[in-house]
């Protein structure tokens, strides 16, 4: 078991004060089945993977990444996937021990794990808690059994709610995901479903509109006219219901798809949205790091790891890591990423920080036009989307960036 803060270095560490924070993302690439809407790097295997072999590989890659970042204190760890709740608790504990040795965890570190809410996987929750996980994100996705089946999920609504109850006993913090704008969904049925979810008393909800991703079974069904999604008017009504119901329940949106009670925001994801730095470990993981090796330009770098689990294992065992990309980001690229991430947040973009990074400031004319249209506003040195701008944020960002 690893406790947050155990073995924490006492002296301030290089880059530890980097704006936006520092976290570690760990990717577990395996699922029991592939959901038809999912385009994540996930793989279904007939035989379970050798978790001891994977633990050894994760440890080696962590050690390698530590040579790139230099000393840091990790504020967050996030186990994503795939389905991390297929990991044995001992594997999670071993990875956390390696992370804590490389980047000592701060005393109140957030350690999150994504999980499916099946009874089989919920049986591991106590073990994850003992390993050091203190926050779980459950992929509930729907509270309607017919829709769960069409989404390719392997649990029922009742099983999902039972898993939420188990999770609340095992972890300090619990979040779960729901997908809306599903076929035939109405604002009234979605409001009832949302209220049922809110009755569980969770502090955080991630609420995503169903989108059609390239290369998925849903894309093929949609293209063939066999999957009909709500039209634009219904989709907008579903968005409005989402905001109204969550706000009334004390979980307003703090990010375009994420809702939380005050102080219960997902701190790891805030590192992404506030354009902090993070290490990506495991097959297909991406990172944004401030390189700290002798002779390096200390600018931000984009790292990418081999996607295929077997190839990743071979690379790590042969060379100590599975990296297939480690590229410096230009100031223009960094500014674009910061803009895309920052405007997703209700708090908006820190303009002074953006302008310290960007080669060219945002055009005052473009900002003014979007303010006049009611899409953007400025407050206390921050640029943020309005209630009118959030539902069409992609178009707002495109107009702003030119």
If you had to describe this structure to a student in words, what would you say it looks like?
By secondary structure, the chain is α/β, with parallel strands linked by helices. The chain has two domains: 22-272, Aldolase class I (TIM Barrel, Alpha-Beta Barrel), CATH 3.20.20.70; 342-401, no CATH class. Helix content is 39%, strand content 22%. It contains 15 helices and 17 strands. It has helices at 51-69, 89-102, 119-122, 125-131, 145-150, 157-170, 187-198, 217-223, 232-248, 267-273, 309-319, 331-342, 351-357, 364-372, 393-401; strands at 22-28, 30-31, 43-44, 74-81, 105-115, 135-141, 173-180, 204-209, 253-255, 258-260, 277-281, 286-290, 300-305, 323-328, 349-350, 376-379, 382-385. Helix 1 runs parallel beside helix 2. The longest helix is centred in the N-terminal third of the chain and has 19 residues, at 51-69. The radius of gyration is 21 Å and the shape is globular. The N and C termini lie far apart (50 Å). Residues 3-17 have low confidence and may be disordered.
């Amino acid at each position: 078991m690893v406790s947050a803060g155990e073995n924490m270095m006492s002296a301030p560490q290089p880059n530890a004060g980097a704006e936006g924070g520092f976290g570690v993302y760990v990717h577990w690439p395996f699922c029991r089945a592939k959901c038809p809407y999912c385009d994540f790097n996930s793989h279904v295997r007939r035989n379970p993977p050798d978790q001891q072999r994977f633990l050894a590989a994760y440890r080696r890659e962590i050690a390698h990444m530590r040579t790139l970042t230099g000393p840091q204190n990790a504020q967050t760890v996030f186990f994503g996937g795939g389905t991390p709740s297929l990991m044995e608790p001992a594997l999670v504990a071993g990875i956390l021990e390696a992370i804590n040795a490389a980047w000592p965890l701060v005393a109140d570190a957030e350690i999150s794990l994504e999980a499916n809410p099946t009874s089989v996987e919920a049986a591991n929750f106590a073990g994850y808690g003992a390993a050091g996980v203190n926050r779980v994100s459950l992929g509930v996705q729907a509270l309607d059994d017919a829709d769960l089946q069409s989404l390719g999920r392997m649990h029922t609504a009742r099983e999902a709610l039972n898993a939420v109850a188990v999770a609340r006993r095992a972890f300090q913090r619990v979040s779960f995901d729901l997908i809306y704008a599903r076929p035939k969904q109405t604002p009234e049925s979605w409001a009832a479903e949302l209220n049922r979810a809110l009755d569980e008393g969770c502090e955080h909800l991630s609420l995503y509109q169903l989108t059609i991703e390239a290369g998925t079974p849903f894309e093929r069904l949609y293209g063939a006219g066999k999957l009909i999604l709500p039209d634009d008017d219904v989709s907008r009504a579903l968005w409005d219901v989402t905001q109204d119901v969550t706000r009334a329940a004390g979980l307003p949106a703090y990010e375009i798809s994420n809702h939380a009670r005050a102080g219960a925001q997902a701190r790891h994801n805030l590192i992404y949205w506030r354009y902090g730095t993070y290490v990506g470990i495991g097959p297909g993981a991406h990172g944004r790091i401030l390189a700290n090796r002798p002779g390096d330009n200390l600018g931000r770098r984009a790292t990418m790891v081999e996607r295929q689990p077997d190839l990743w294992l071979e690379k790590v065992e042969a060379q100590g890591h599975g990296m297939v990309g480690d590229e410096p980001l230009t100031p223009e690229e960094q500014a674009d990423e910061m803009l895309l991430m920052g405007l997703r947040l209700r708090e908006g973009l820190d303009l002074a920080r953006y302008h310290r990074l960007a080669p060219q400031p945002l055009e005052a004319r473009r900002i003014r036009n979007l303010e006049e249209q009611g899409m953007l506003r400025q407050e206390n040195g921050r640029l943020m989307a309005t209630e009118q701008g959030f539902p069409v944020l992609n178009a707002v960002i495109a107009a702003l960036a030119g």
